[in-house]
Each structure stands twice: as C-alpha cells, then as structure tokens.
Design brief:
About 35% of the residues lie in helices and about 25% in strands. The protein has an 8-stranded parallel beta sheet with strand order 10-9-8-11-12-15-13-14. A 7-stranded mixed beta sheet has the order 1-2-7-6-5-4-3. With about 325 residues, the protein is an alpha/beta fold.
Length: about 325
C-alpha cells in the first residue's frame, strides 16, 4: 500500500522504489510511451527539454511534460552529486493541478530509457532482425536488451564492456533472464560484426562506434550520452545513417553531441533529424527499405517519465 502525504486538503501518494519495481514492466512502459508519443505527434502532449542548475558540488536536473489527453502533467527532478544520484517524479492532474503522486524514480528511469529504445526499435529496425549488440554493461544496459527482446524475436546477443568481469557477468545474467545466448566480446568490432541491432549505453566521452563498423540494414539506439561533452558515435557513423530520429529535436540541439558535431562540420543538417513521435504518430514513414541504416538518438525526455509514472500511478491508485 502506498503512503499518503498530507498537503492541505489533498493526499497524494508517496510511491517508493520497491513499489515502482513491482508494477512497472517493460511491455507496459513501451505501450504507454507509444501512446504518449502518438498523442504528442497530434498535439495532445507537450514536452519541456531538460534544464540544469550547477553548483560546485553537484547538479540539479529538471524536466517537465504534460500528457493532456490522459489528464497528467508532471516533472522529473534529480540531483547528481559525488555521493550519488537521486531521482523523483511528481505527477499531477492536468485538469486541476492537484498533486497525485510523488514517486522515487531510479527504476522508473531505467525502464523508461529501455522502453524508448524498444519503441524506436519497433518502428525502425528490420522486422527480421534477430541479433543484438549491447555496448556497455552497466545498470542501464539490462533494460536496453530486455526492451529490444520485447519487440523483436532476438535469437542471440553480444555484449562489450571495457571491463571483462562486467561483460561476462552481464552475459550470464541476461542469458538466464532471457533464455537466449549472450556472448561477451573482447572488442566493439567483435560485438557488432554479426548484429542487426546495436545499442550504445556507455559513459564514453569519445566515440566508440565508427562508421566503418556499420553494415546495411542495421538499426542503432544511441542511448548513453545526453551532454555536448560526450558522444558514442563518430561523424562518419552518423553520416551513414539514412534515417535519424530523436525523442525531442529541441532537446537534441542542446545535448546530442553525436548530431551537433556533424552539423557544425556541415556533414549533417537538422532537417534530416526527425522526431520519433512523428514516426510513431504516422506523420512520417518508418523504415523504408531492408538496406537502410537507421539511428535513434535517445536523450531521455520528461514525456517518457510522465508516461511511465502514469502506469505506476494507475496500478497503485485505489
């Protein structure tokens, strides 16, 4: 049972991390994000790009969105300091402004980030894609692979991490969870060589995936970087992608170094960068041919948090 917070005449729910884990699954999150993105494409949702407040010791990250058609408005705030990062989401009524719930959101963030890649994979990867390469083996990598497996019939996965122990532990853990072979690899090149879907989910500051590694028909989810100081794909790799989608073009201009660098070098233009919402909402076509190389640059946006929080609230609210 969720706790109640007394705020004046209202009693919003206080939803703890363990409760979020109990109810928020990847299939539910993908379904909710798909509905929210479809509504956003048709003017029934709004997203506000992330803002950051810096101190010498750490940073406050703040992002808000409204899902008008479902009656929700809210924000995610998180504090990143040397002692750790703490996340919470506030969900309110879009009709009255009444606070409905305050929820701890570490697991919610991991799930919604995976769900965004799953949603992009559903629309942009080849229907017959059966192999996945995961570059990175941290906390976020698990939900990336799980989400891809939720939308495609994956038969084998490959994982690369700079730390052998981490990639081997990830492979064993995910192989048990998903009942598919997961092979730890000693290099990025080895991991991507036989993969149809690639996912980068690393803290890399310099590109780890190069254009020379890409093959026709691949789909890429670049989900690790949301800062102009970090990028996982080099300019050649981005240039080889015929279709490029982002979760929010406005936020991409502030945070997507993978796109900003090639645009500054005049190797790419913002006109070629499409909102994933427009593809989900049917305003733009999805994958056009089996040979097309497609890219989803994931930044993590507030509408994804609100959509995921809506799932949690509706599952817990009596």
């Amino acid at each position: 049972m969720a706790e109640r917070i007394q705020l004046g005449d209202s009693q919003p729910l206080l939803i703890r991390e363990a409760q979020v884990r109990e109810v928020l699954t990847l299939p539910l999150a993908i379904e909710s994000l798909e509905a929210a993105f479809r509504d956003w494409a048709h003017g029934r949702a709004t997203n506000q790009p992330r803002q950051r407040v810096h101190t010498p010791q750490g940073t406050l990250h703040l992002m808000g969105a409204a899902w008008h058609s479902r009656g929700y408005i809210g924000y995610k705030a998180y504090f990143s300091f040397p002692t750790g990062t703490r996340f919470h989401v506030a969900l309110a009524s879009a009709h009255t402004g009444e606070l409905l719930a305050l929820m701890e959101a570490d697991w919610l963030g991991r799930i919604r980030t995976g769900a965004a890649s799953g949603l992009a994979t559903k629309y942009l990867a080849r229907e017959d894609a059966q192999t996945v390469a995961i570059l990175g083996a941290g906390d976020q990598a698990e939900t990336q692979l799980q989400a891809i497996c939720a939308v495609r019939s994956v038969q084998k996965a490959f994982v690369y991490s700079r730390t052998p122990e981490k990639r081997e532990a990830f492979a064993l853990r995910m192989q048990e969870q998903l009942s598919i072979p997961v092979q730890p690899c000693e290099s990025v090149e080895q991991a991507v060589a036989d993969a149809a879907i690639l996912c980068t989910i690393t803290p890399a500051r310099e590109p780890i995936l190069t254009g020379a590694m890409l093959k026709p028909g691949m789909h890429i989810n670049a989900a690790g970087a949301n800062s102009l100081a970090r990028r996982e794909l080099d300019t050649f790799a981005v240039g080889r992608c015929e279709r490029i989608a982002v979760d929010d073009p406005q936020q991409a201009r502030r945070e997507a170094a993978e796109l900003v660098v090639p645009i500054e070098l005049r190797k790419l233009s913002w006109e070629r960068v499409q909102p994933l919402a427009h593809i989900v909402g049917g305003l733009l076509p999805a994958r056009q041919s089996p040979e097309e190389i497609t890219l989803f640059k994931s930044l993590g946006i507030a509408l994804e948090d609100v959509a995921a929080a809506a799932v949690v609230y509706e599952a817990i609210h009596p």
